[in-house]
Design brief:
about 30% strand, Histidine-containing Protein, Chain: A, four-stranded mixed β-sheet, single chain, 3 domains
Amino acid sequence: MKTDVELQRNVLDELKFEPAVHAAEIGVIAKDGIITLTGFVPNYWEKVAAERAAKRVLGVRGVAEEIRVNLPAFYQRTDADIARAAANALEWNTLVPPEKVKVTVSEGFVKLEGEVDWQYQKTAARDAVHLLAGVKSVDNQITVKPKVTPSAIKADIVSAFKRSAELDARHIDVEATEDKVVLKGKVRNLAEREEAERTAWAAAGVGRVVNQLQIQF
């Protein structure tokens, strides 16, 4: 198991390696496998990229993200401008069902609401707006409506786990109740834990995933 000093150094190196991140503006604190990211970035996308980079590092058990978005003057937009741009981005995105998602903007903080049939549609809505100029954060409150039985959901997820080259399906258990999926067992790292959750979300009818997978170093 890596020490806190080694983990901090590895995360800093990964941030420097990530081209979307200006690592000099981001602080890293490591304690018991938990990484805390601090500092300021000029846009929301860089904040997301920094968090993803930290999660890729072997030995990271969790990330506390405390980075703040400090928009430079040329990125600043009124809430009305952001709302209009977000609505257009959703309308032009073929993965987002028409008229299913509503946007609210307050001081650069975007909230998405509505109901969709698939998790990928919820994710696509978030991805459509988080790169827009002026956005400081995205609160994705879109819900996914179930359309299949729990047994079918479980069967689809288990099959997907077995097909995946990135997952060891032998050590992951899947429980499904209504639209809720619970993942239990052991994984090798944080990236595998997140891949298992992403795969579970991809199944039709999943409205909630509770990830109880433990990282076994």
